[in-house]
Amino acid sequence: EDHLADHIGIGRTRAPWDDADLLIAIGGDGTFLKAIWMSAPRQIPILGVHMGYLGFLTEVTEDEVCKALEAVLSGDFVKEERTMFECVLVREDQEIISQHVLNDVVINKSALARMIDIEVSTDSTFITCYRADGLIVSTPTGSTAYNLATGGPIVHPQVDAIILTPICPHVLSNRSIVLPDSQEVIIVVKSGKRSDNIYLTLDGQRGFPLVAEDRLIVKRGRYKANILRFPQRNYFEILRTKLGWQER
User: pLDDT-based confidence at 247, cuts 50/70/90?
Assistant: First the structure.
């Protein structure tokens, strides 16, 4: 984006959506997450229109777009705040990245890499050292994403929680842990060279290679995502529809 802006001579000091009253994300959950990254620091509400695969976050379908926009213009909507996490990557006492996420922070290995040793603490209290293919740190909103696919719990988005779910742990008793989001989670990668292909993924949108002794700090973020919802459709109705749960 910066390269294109320089090429066509447009400055990057001000984004076109800075004064927007509403952002509309048309696509799948990936598109929605990218839009959240842009809108959350500015506290701009966002409406998701589903044109992707599953769409837990983009609940308005193509057929409902006109009706949804009419409802927005008439004020018939609910603005729902969702907790975001801030993830900070520290390497050799240098902060490498700092990013807010709505869904999850994932440490994962490539197909040919060995299992990873991942040490996890909260504040100053040691929890465990996972030996696994990876680790998911999920928000309640993200609990229905990768966390759910790896056997983690579904947590209502209004619960203030941090969910830790190991990916294919070597010890079968290693299960998900749900922590209060008032705590800070510190994760240290205890194994891995640059050639081991261990990666940090943020909301499935950005990826960074990790090496041994990299430290991740995950905590409740400064920003919240403001998502437009409609009172006719509740959270459990969306779960039933998306997950194919049986109705009475």
Answer: low
Q: Mean pLDDT across the chain, nearest whole number?
A: 88
The residues carrying an active-site annotation are 29
Q: CA angle, corner 227, sides to 4 and 54, nearest 5? A: 80
Q: Is-contact 71 230, C-beta < 8 A? A: yes
Residue 36, CA atoms < 13 Å, CB-side half-sphere: 30
Secondary element (H or E) of residue 205: none
Neighbours of 31 (CB within 10 A): 19
31: which DSSP letter?
Answer: H
Q: Which domain holds residue 167?
A: 84-222
Against a cut of 0.85, is the pTM above it? yes
- Residue 67 sits in a domain whose CATH number is 3.40.50.10330
Q: Are 184 and 217 in contact (CB under 8 A)?
A: yes
* CA 149 – CA 146 distance, rounded (Å): 5
Residue 210 · residue 194 · CB < 8 Å: no
Residue 248 lies in a domain: no
